[in-house]
Structure formats: C-alpha cells, structure tokens
From TrEMBL:
<dbReference type="InterPro" id="IPR026845">
    <property type="entry name" value="NXPH/NXPE"/>
</dbReference>
<dbReference type="InterPro" id="IPR014756">
    <property type="entry name" value="Ig_E-set"/>
</dbReference>
<protein>
    <submittedName>
        <fullName>NXPE family member 3</fullName>
    </submittedName>
</protein>
<dbReference type="Pfam" id="PF06312">
    <property type="entry name" value="Neurexophilin"/>
</dbReference>
<dbReference type="InterPro" id="IPR013783">
    <property type="entry name" value="Ig-like_fold"/>
</dbReference>
Amino acid sequence: NLFPPQHLDDDTISGSNWITENNVQRSLSQTTKTTRKPYCGYKQQTLSKREQAEQELLLAAIQWPNPPDGKIAFVQSTDPAHSDFVLVKPSGFLKVGDQLEVLVRMKDFQGKPKQYGGDYLQARIHSPQLKAGATGRIVDCRNGFYKVFFTLLWPGEVKVSVSLVHPSEAIQVLLRLREERPDRVYFKSSFKSGRYSETTECNVCLPGDVPVCNFTDLYTGEPWFCYKPRKLSCASRISHAKGGYQKGLLTQEESRFFQSDVNIKRPILSSGPDSVIVKPKAFT
C-alpha cells in the first residue's frame, strides 16, 4: 500500500474517466469534480467468527503508530540528515551468533528531537567483500527512538546501515489515501466478441452508480469489480492489466513529505563507529 510518491502529485488524471468502444474514448464521469460513491462489495460480505478473528489479527498486525493530533509542519517532520544512530557497546567482544543492538535517534529539520514514532526505517548489516547481508528487527519506542537488533551471522568486519524510507508524516498521508481513495491505483479489463471490443476500469471499489461486473473470487471471497461494457456481457472479458495511477491527490504541503532527495530512502549516518569485528564462534 506504499506507492511511489511520483504517482501521487502530478497533473490530475481520472481513472474512471474512460471506457473505450473500438478504441474510441468516452467519458464516464469526472471523478475529480463529482462526489464519489464507491461501490465496495466486500463491505456487504458477512464474515464467520473465524474470518472475523483473522481479519482483526491482520488489521492489528498492520496497525501503524499515529503522530500527535493536528497537522505537522514540514520543518517538524523527520529529517534523516539531522538524525543519527549509535552502536550499543560496539567495542565489546562479539562472535558469530551474538546480537548487536543499534539505537536510532530521529530529529526534525530544525535539529530538534522527535517526540513520537511511526517512521518507516530499514536497517541491515553487510560485508561487501563477502557479499553477505542481513536485515535487522526494528522496535519503535514511539518517542523518537528506535532500537534495531541484528543477529551476527558471519565473522569479519560487519558494517551497519540505516535508512529512512518514509517519515512518519508521509506514512499518515499514505494511510489517509488508502482509506479515502482506494481507487488511486486502477486497473482495466478488455471485453471482446467477434470484432467488437470494449475496455473498462476495474478495482475493488468503483465510484458512481454505473452497472458493474462482479468478478469476486468464489473460493476466497476476494472482491473484484469492473464497469460493465455498454454492449458486451461480463462473460466476454479476455484480458486484465494495470491501468495507471490517480494523480493530483496531495496538497502542496503534503508533497513536501515525499522528496526523493530529502526524506525518501535517505541514509541515516552514525555518530560514531558504524562497523564491528565479529569473531568466529568458538567450538568446544
């Protein structure tokens, strides 16, 4: 659900703006100018107790920490250039199989410590000479600090790298878009009978009071719908592909949270040593 930001803030296009008949484009509705009424068939499904419990577990697993109430100014958002990390007890005797702990400290663009969590971090250990690498387990302390735990799997010099993928403020924008614009990534299907063909938009939710074809999986219950062709039946579908991205969904202030050279996939540097020497595991 974390889509590349370059698809979110360009000139506006409409995913529900097209339906083709023999390659002639026709407008269904101006989705960026009209009130949206999603058609979400999965909201009409009745779940068993087991399915309900599984759904609650999945939703809990993807729950993301929320920042303080109210809008956060860009200068108060996470700045990877001001943030840093330190190795906990880097000079200790470490051997293969031991655990290395790293403490990450996040700050904003004013250099002030962050007081809440929710940043999307990636951390790894690696040895380029050996072409070896492993990821770490990140624990969000929810106060601007993060603990990262690595299991040391090979001997020699092991370097630590930490990077900010998305600041917490950007995550909140993406979560909002997930809830408010489930159609921001749209798909299309082609229908054909003889020489006549039509192409319509498909998605989990479709806006407008337009007839739809229900392609919900009968075994899993996974919902999927396409706008019904004007002249062809739903059974005449022959292909399916991604249509594109809805654009122009970010405000000017929100777009500042998605700057590839500023706060997306940017390294966080160490304020001290960024590597350790790992000894081979002793056998008795």
